Amino acid sequence: MFTFIKRLQELLAQLKKNKGLWFTTLSVVSISGIFICMYIITTMTDRVSKEVYQSMSKSYEQILNVKIENKKTEFEKILVAIRQNGALLNAIENNNNIAMTAVKDFLNEEFVKSGFMDLSIDIINVTNKDRVFRNAVNTVISSKRQLFGIEVLNEGVFVVYLLPLERDGSVYGVLEVKESIHSLRSDFVKQGSEYVFLLDKKMLPFISLEAKTGKYKEVNQEYTLENVRYDTKFAASMPTMDEKLYMQLLKDKYTIDQGYFKIVKKITDINGADVGLIIVGESTEVSGGFVNIADNMTNTVTTVALGLVISIILFLF
Fold first, then answer.
1. What pLDDT score was predicted for residue 167?
2. Residues 6+ apart with CB under 8 A from 286
C-alpha cells in the first residue's frame, strides 16, 4: 500500500514538471469525471422515476379495487331495504308476477329519476318455469350463497350482486342488483382522473345485437371499445396506441404515452373468464399531477448535481 502511494506521488511529481501533460491529464480526468457523474445521476433519477410510476400504478389499482368493492356495499344496502318488504317477499314466494313486476318497475324508475341511469334491480322466482336462468343465478340457487362480480349480459358488461332468498332451507327467490361497469368512470372523473373499459372481443357474442350495433369501435386485434360511452381524448387515444406501447402496458401495468400516464387492470368475470381491461390514468400536462412533479424533481436533482460537479472540478483547477 505504501509502495503504491509513493509511486503515485512520484508520478504526480513528474506530471507537474511537464505542465502541458499535467493540464491535459487534469482535463481528461475532469471530463471523464463529469460524464461518469452524469451517468450515475441520470441512471439514479431514472430508477427513482420508475419506482414512483410503479408506486402510482399500484395506488391506482388499489383505488380501482376499492371502488369495485364499494359497489358491493352499495348493493347490499339497497337489498337490505328491499328485504324489509314482507309483501314483496310473499309475492316472490308465491310467484305473483304482477306484484313483483310492479315493485321492480317502480324501483328502476326511481333509480332513473335520481340520475342512476345504469343501475337496476331484478326479482326472480326460482319456480318460474317460463324463465331460463343464466349460470350465475343457478349457482346462487344451488349454493345458497350470495354472488358478486363482473358479468357480461345481453345488455352489456355489469357489476352484479345476486342474493338468495331462503325459507326452511330452500331458496325460493333471488334478488339482483346490477350497474354498468362504465359507471365507475364518474368516480374517477370527480378526482381529475381518466377511465375507460375495453371489452375482450371474444365476449361480444354474449351481448345482444341491439345492445352492440353501431356502439362499439375496434381498438386492436383483441379489444373493442363501447364508443358511445366515451367522448374523451383519453378514450380516443386507445385505438391509436402503438402496438409496442400496448404490449409494454400489459407487461409493466403502466405506461406514459400520448400525453397520458396509464395503468391497466385485467378484469375477470364471476366465472373466472377474462372479459376485458380497465385503463385509468391522468394527463401528463396537468401542472399539479404527479407525473409533472416527478419530472420536475428529476430535472431539479440532475441540474443541481451537475452544477455541484462542475463547481468541484473548477475548484480543483
1. 87
2. 192, 292
Asked if 165 and 92 touch (Cβ cutoff 8 Å), the reply is yes
Q: Are 237 and 158 in contact (CB under 8 A)?
A: no
Q: What angle in degrees, to the nearest 10, is found between the helix axes of 97-113 and 86-93?
A: 130
Write the DSSP string, 69-111: HHHHHHHHHHHHHHHT-HHHHHHHHTT-HHHHHHHHHHHHHHH
Read off the pTM.
Answer: 0.78
HSE-up (13 A, CA, CB side) for residue 233: 10
What is the predicted pLDDT for the residue at 277? 94
- With a cut of 50, list the residues of the chain below it in pLDDT: none
Q: What is the pLDDT of residue 22?
A: 56
* Crossing angle (nearest 10°) for helices 19-83 and 2-17: 120
Cell 507537474 belongs to residue: 16
Alpha-carbon span 104 to 93, nearest angstrom:
15
Instruction: From 239, 215, 212, 213, select the one nearest 229 (Cα to Cα).
Output: 215
> Cell triple for residue 75?
348493493
One-letter amino acid of 149: G
